[in-house]
Amino acid sequence: MQVRSRRGFTLIELMIVLMIMLILMTLLAPTMIKARYRAQLTACMDTVKHLATALEQYSVDNKVYPLALNPAFTTAYLNRPKVVCPSSQQDYTYQVDNVEHSFTIYCGTGKHDVALPGVVLNGFPQFSHHLGSVTVK
């Protein structure tokens, strides 16, 4: 009597393995998407903080905030001609109130909204190390 050696996998075995892989992918996909979004939001918040630090440096040097985030300002204080959100590549919106000696930086991209208001403490403007508001859409 001859015994045949078994080679390969049956169709049922392959389908079970594929189903297990599909289930694992459906469980991991939302986590991976959230992690990517969180990384983009963190990069945006980091850029806003660097921009706020540059605005403070300009304010110390010139006693007023710049009227706009123009290339001359960003090149001089950030060593780059333009500052954009890393996740959406859109420009930041900037509002200044030189009477109150404060500013607010907005990143309203449609994906997330970040606002960092300036704070005046003891007559000296500072930005808060905590973001004023972050809205996740």
Radius of gyration: 26 Å
Structural class estimated from helices and strands = alpha+beta
- Low-confidence blocks of residues: 127-137
What's the count of strands?
5
- Overall mean confidence score, pLDDT: 77
Q: What count of domains describes the coordinates? A: 1
Distance between the termini: 70 Å
Q: What is the helix/strand order?
A: HHEEEEE
Largest sheet composition = 5 strands, antiparallel
Overall form: rod-shaped
Strand content: 15-25%
- Helicity level: 40-55%
- Enumerate how many helices there are, as a single number: 2
Task: Write up this protein.
The chain has one domain (11-136). It has 2 helices and 5 strands, in the order ααβββββ. Helix 1 (11-62) crosses helix 2 (71-78). Strands 1, 2, 3, 4 and 5 form a 5-stranded antiparallel sheet that branches. The chain has helices spanning 11-62, 71-78, and strands spanning 93-97, 102-108, 112-121, 124-127, 133-136. The relative contact order is 0.13. The chain is α+β, with helices and mostly antiparallel strands and 137 residues long.
List the helices and strands and how they pair.
Layout: H1 11-62, H2 71-78, E1 93-97, E2 102-108, E3 112-121, E4 124-127, E5 133-136
Antiparallel strand pairs: 1-2, 2-3, 3-4, 3-5
Helix pairs in contact: 1-2
Briefly characterize the structure.
It is built from two helices and five strands. It has 137 residues and is of the alpha+beta class.
Structural descriptors:
137 residues, alpha+beta, 5-stranded antiparallel beta sheet, rod-shaped, disordered C terminus
